[in-house]
């Protein structure tokens, strides 16, 4: 180390050799530290930029994403990154995804109506869109009273293809949700429409629509979340990620749910697909359609 460098790093004017001897540090080790400092500062700068990206993705996901989905989102942006590194950075800075809580079921068994057979058997997969649907109802609190949401999810893509909202959960609510799913197109003849045994799904109105659309009705057991786990998962996401405990009005709840379904869930939220990796439900539908299209 030359005299000029020694003076720069020791403004008190003490010699480097003397200081190293007093501090019990080797001169070569001190010089190696100085030589490595620019690289360490550059690494710290790059890590700070990465943490800023992680925080941006985490915030955009309503603070719902954990390390796996944040890693996937970073890779989609072109970053070559290891999941363990993301986990470490999130752990060190206390950045956490949301842990979902179990919910209490809403629908009630109609003991007078004969249940349909369970055609799903807890197998919540489908090879093609429009072949297996799952449905359920949940309730959301507002200052004006309960607000109810009926849903229809395509198991092949996990896309929310139909939904309806109202201040009641009569049969017409689930009928409207299924009509929306049918109106978007793509339901194949003989498509399974699965739900629990709630009175809404056992109603004459709902079963009439099932017949008109050429679908096959399937029912799990009322009160068993495992028989309709795919919808339960969505409701868990909705209530954990949307962040509102009680809405000021039903109109506010309606607007938030619409935004969550159509933007956050269907078109933005990443889900790990066994073939395509981390993709959104809409991307899954597009990719599946491409794979199923006959070769020219």
Automatic annotation (TrEMBL):
Source taxon at top rank: Bacteria
Any Pfam family the entry gives: HTH_21
Annotated InterPro entries: HTH-like_dom, Integrase_cat-core, RNaseH-like_sf, RNaseH_sf, Transpos_IS3, Transposase_IS3/IS150/IS904
SUPFAM superfamilies noted in UniProt: Ribonuclease H-like (SSF53098)
Keywords per UniProt: Plasmid
GO biological-process terms attached to the record: DNA integration
Residue ranges of every copy of the Integrase catalytic domain listed in the record: 125-289
Molecular function per GO: nucleic acid binding
Its biological purpose: Involved in the transposition of the insertion sequence.
Name this polypeptide is given: IS3 family transposase
Organism for this UniProt entry: Streptomyces cadmiisoli
Organism lineage string: Bacteria, Bacillati, Actinomycetota, Actinomycetes, Kitasatosporales
């Amino acid at each position: 180390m030359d005299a000029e460098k020694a003076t720069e790093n020791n403004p008190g004017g003490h010699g480097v050799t003397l200081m190293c001897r007093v501090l019990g540090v080797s001169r070569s080790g001190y010089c190696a530290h100085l030589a490595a400092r620019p690289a360490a500062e550059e690494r710290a700068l790059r890590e700070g930029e990465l943490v800023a990206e992680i925080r941006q993705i985490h915030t955009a996901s309503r603070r719902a994403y954990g390390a796996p989905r944040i890693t996937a989102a970073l890779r989609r942006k072109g970053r070559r990154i290891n999941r363990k590194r993301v986990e470490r950075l999130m752990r060190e800075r206390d950045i956490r995804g949301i842990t979902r809580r179990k919910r209490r079921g809403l629908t009630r068994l109609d003991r007078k109506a004969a249940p349909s057979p369970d055609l799903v058997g807890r197998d919540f997969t489908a090879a093609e869109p429009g072949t297996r649907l799952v449905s359920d109802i949940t309730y959301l609190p507002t200052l004006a009273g309960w607000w109810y949401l009926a849903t229809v999810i395509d198991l092949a893509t996990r896309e929310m293809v139909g939904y309806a909202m109202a201040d009641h959960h009569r049969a017409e609510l689930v009928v409207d949700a299924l009509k929306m799913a049918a109106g978007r197109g793509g339901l194949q003849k003989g498509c399974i429409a699965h739900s629990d045994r709630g009175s809404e799904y056992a109603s004459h109105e709902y079963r009439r629509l099932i017949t008109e659309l050429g679908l096959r009705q399937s029912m799990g057991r009322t009160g068993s979340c495992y028989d309709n786990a795919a919808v339960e998962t969505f409701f868990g996401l909705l209530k954990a990620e949307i962040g509102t405990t009680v809405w000021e009005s039903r109109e506010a709840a309606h607007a938030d749910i619409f935004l969550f379904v159509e933007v956050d869930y269907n078109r933005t939220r990443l889900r790990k697909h066994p073939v395509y990796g981390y993709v959104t439900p809409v991307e899954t539908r597009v990719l599946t359609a491409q794979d199923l299209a006959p070769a020219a």
